[in-house]
Amino acid sequence: MSFLNWFxxxxxxxxxxxxxxxxxxxxxxxxxxxxxxxxxxxxNKLTAKVEAVGKRAKDMLGKTPTSVxxxxxxxDGVIADFEIAEKMLDFFxxxxxxxxxxxxxxxxxxxIPTGVTQVERRAVKDVAMRAKASEVYLVEQPMSASVxxxxxxxxxxxxxxxxxxxxxxxxxxISLEGIVFNHSIRIAGNEMDxxxxxxxxxxYNLLIGERTAELVKMQIGSAYPLDEPMTxxxxxxxxxxxxxxxxxxxxxxxxxxxxxxxxxxxxxxxxALEKTPxxxxxxxxxxxxxxxxxxALLKNIDKRIREETQLPVFITEDPLTTVVLGAGRMLDDxxxxxKISLI
Length: 343
Fold this sequence. Notes:
This protein is an alpha+beta fold. Helix content is 40%, strand content 27%. It has helices spanning 3-11, 55-59, 82-96, 118-130, 141-148, 189-204, 210-220, 251-275, 278-287, 301-309, 322-330, 334-340, and strands spanning 15-19, 23-28, 32-38, 41-44, 50-53, 68-71, 74-75, 78-79, 107-112, 135-140, 159-164, 169-175, 178-185, 206-207, 231-238, 244-250, 289-292, 313-315.
C-alpha cells in the first residue's frame, strides 16, 4: 500500500448506521457493511461491566444468571436506555473500524424512524457524538431505504416504500427528494414475536421465549397461505405441570397468531394510500409498493398486501440491509445528504 493510500485510510472513516430495534448495521465507506449484529447488550449488574454485545449477547437471552442481565437499548426504533445504547454503538464503531485510530473523527449517517420526536432525535445524535463522531446526519429510514433500493427519488414521480423493522413500520411516499406523506406505527417484527408467544401460551399452556418465537416466525410464519403446509417442533415449559414439553405447530396456526399484527400493517398501508395526492397515486399504480426491513421476509407478506391493495408489490433484494446501504450511498453524495437529512 502506498503512503498516500495509507494516509487516506488513516485520515477519516465515514460511517453509516442503521440503529434498529432488533439489529444494528454499520457501513464503512469504501468497505461496505462491516457489522450486522442484534441490538442487545449483556451487563453484569454487580460491576456494571459489559459482558457481551450483539450476537454473543443474543445467544445468552433467557440463559443468564441473576447477576447478569440482557438489555435491549432500543425500543420502537428509539433509544430506551441512553447509557447502554452509547456503549453498544461505541462497541460496534470500534468493531467496524478495527479499533484503528484516525486523524479525523468520523462523520456518521444514521437512519431513524419517521415518527420520532425532536427529543428522541436529539438522543440519537447525542449518543453518536459521544461515540466520537465529528458530525451526525439523521435520515428518515424510508428515505434511506429508497436510496438503498435505487428508487428514482429525485424525479417528480411517486415512490411508496414500506419499511417493516423490529419496532416500527414506516410507510412513506417520496417524490423530488422529499417525503410527501409518511405514516409510522409502532407495530412490527417484535410484535409478531410477542403474538406468537401469547398464542402458544393461550392455546397450548406452553411458555416459550423470545428466541423460540422469532425462530417460529422465521421458519413457518406467513401472512398468506403457503403452497406447501409446514410444521415445526417447538420446546417450552408446560404452565400446568411446570416441566419442559415439546409440541408441533403448523403454518396455519402461526398465521392465525400473526393476523392482528399483519392486519395493522396493511391498515397503515391503506391509510397512506388514502392520504397520497392523486397525481402521485397514479404513479404508485404503475410503480407499485416496495417492501423492505426484516418484516418483509415474512413469507407471502407481499402476496397479502398485493391482494388487499390490488397494487404491484416488490421486495428489495436484501431487505435487512437496504436502509444501511442507502445511508452508505449518501456518504458519497453529500449534496443529497444535506438536502434530505433532518435538522
